[in-house]
Amino acid sequence: MKFEDLLLETGGFGRFQILILIILCLPRINLPMHFLLHNFIAATPSHHCAIPHQEAFVNLTMEEVLLISIPRESDGTFSSCEMFSQPQFHLLLNSSLQSENKSIIQRCQHGWVYDHSQLTSTISTQWDLVCEQRGLNQATATFFFIGVTMGAVVFGYLSDRFGRKTMLLLSLVCSVVFGMLSAASVSYSMLAITRTLTGVALSGVSLIVLPLAMEWVDIQHRTFTGILSSIFWSVGNMLLAMVAYLVREWHWLIVAVTGPCLLSIVCLWWVPESARWLIAKGKVKQAHRHLLRCARTNRRKDFAVSPEALTRMVTDKKPGGSYFYTSLFKTPVLRKISLCSGVVWFGVSFSYYGMSMNLTGFGLNIYLSQFVFGVIEIPAKMIMYVMVNRVGRRQSQAWTLILTGLCIGANIVIPKPLTALRSVVAIMGKGFSEAAFTTVYLYTSELYPTILRQNGMGYTSFVARLGGALAPLVFLLDEVWRSLPEVTYCSVAVCSGAVAFLLPETLNMCLPEGIEDVE
Does the global pTM surpass 0.70? Predict the structure, then answer.
């Protein structure tokens, strides 16, 4: 007897499964509010060098003070990182006479003045993470994703060893603790450490929520579950834009997005441990109790499967044994799946966060850009619900990644003045990128057997978060060549999409229970 047969005995997809999905949607909504929080807490408003003895220019307007104190860039805007060593009063007579004498231009000596019209306070304005310190500002996101990367290894193994629910609760509790410590940071070093630890904790939430839901639903509703979970992510994207719009101070913004984790902790007590995992570990009495509860909630009073029958369900040659990440590479088919899925996950995450963290290049303010990006994702996911069931997981995964790369590449060659066309292409690219992310979560959870599923998700999440950690740093390559970041994102997306063709198809297949099912 397969576990899918047991689910049919308990009523298939009923009230029990719907309640689980509703409860697990809460942490899923909360995830993007942390993962994309960098867009707002580290946003850099327009700024210029602080001008010393500005009170001496009482007869000049602010525009005239800037004119004689700050050099202009080639596009006519005032420089953000340079100032004149002495006031250039002759520019009041003819502002077009910009001096070519570089010796009178110097870096900012007295700090910076920021435009607070959109952002009251960010880590950029609090610790002057601009100009020469710009790299530290971008590194904040990298520190967070390094934490997520480490957490993927830890929670992937622990959730296969000690259970999905236990580790999900632990990760939520740690997320609250480290999130609040981040909000209380009094130095950049403290923020970097606490955001890294928050990433470790949230990695468990990201890693466990979908597999826990997937292991309680039947074959016919796996796609629906995966797409629905992904839609909740998009809802979180939109909510982040609204919360950030209302809370403009970065300390309180972190508190606002961390608070919902407390609600998730309370609600999670109702969600049972995965019966599929319990059976795989030989804990048949607990599994039977949860299955009986499932049947009663689904109003199936004729559930008559005994604990003895569950004992006879053999999931592997080593039932209940311990597995580690090395098990993913010991057999030929699993090895190929692990190597290829690692490349795909890296490409998906790298291109997705590369686009999601480039809000200023969208032509709208950052709040509207964040909201529009969230809205764009929902129709992409609706289309994927049809596509993954019609053309299969493999084709959907490969082509969404390739098309993401092509859209990024197209915006490299489209002239800057064609802003409308560039925006449309960017919107399409964001849609394809989200479609690729939606598919990869569903696809990966179907590729690995139950006894190794969380190890597999942990490994792929580890590789993906490496992509997420590198994505914000790639923006710094624009100092080498302005289009180099886009070329990098495009190349990685197309190449990883091509690798996806090497993975096996899982459409309408039973979830593998043991390693021999995969081989």
Answer: yes
Same domain, 360 and 489: yes
Same domain, 59 and 14: no
pLDDT digits (tens, 9 = 90+) for 286-323: 888 888 888 888 888 777 777 777 777 644 434 445 67
Give the tens place of pLDDT for each residue, 60-98: 888 888 888 888 887 778 888 888 888 888 788 776 666
The residue to which tokens 């009663």 are assigned: 296
Residue type, 406: L
**What is the signed CA dihedral for 388, 157, 497, 489, rounded to 10 degrees?**
120
Domain range for 25 is 1-42+132-317
- The answer to whether residues 221 and 141 belong to one domain is yes
**Interhelix angle for 250-258 vs 222-246, to 10°?**
150
Q: CATH no. for residue 417? A: 1.20.1250.20
Is residue 119 assigned to a domain?
A: no
Show the tokens assigned to 124.
């950029």
Provide the strand spans (E) within 46-149: 47-49, 82-84, 105-107, 112-114
How far apart, in whole angstroms, are the C-alpha atoms of residue 44 and residue 51? Answer: 19
Are residues 448 and 518 in contact, defined by beta-carbon separation less than 8 angstroms? yes
- Please spell the DSSP secondary structure of 301-351, one letter per residue: TT----HHHHHT---SSSTT----GGGGGSSHHHHHHHHHHHHHHHHHHHH
Task: Give the DSSP letter of residue 78.
Answer: B
Indicate the number of domains in the chain: 3
Convert the pLDDT of each residue in 384-393 to its tens digit: 888 888 888 9
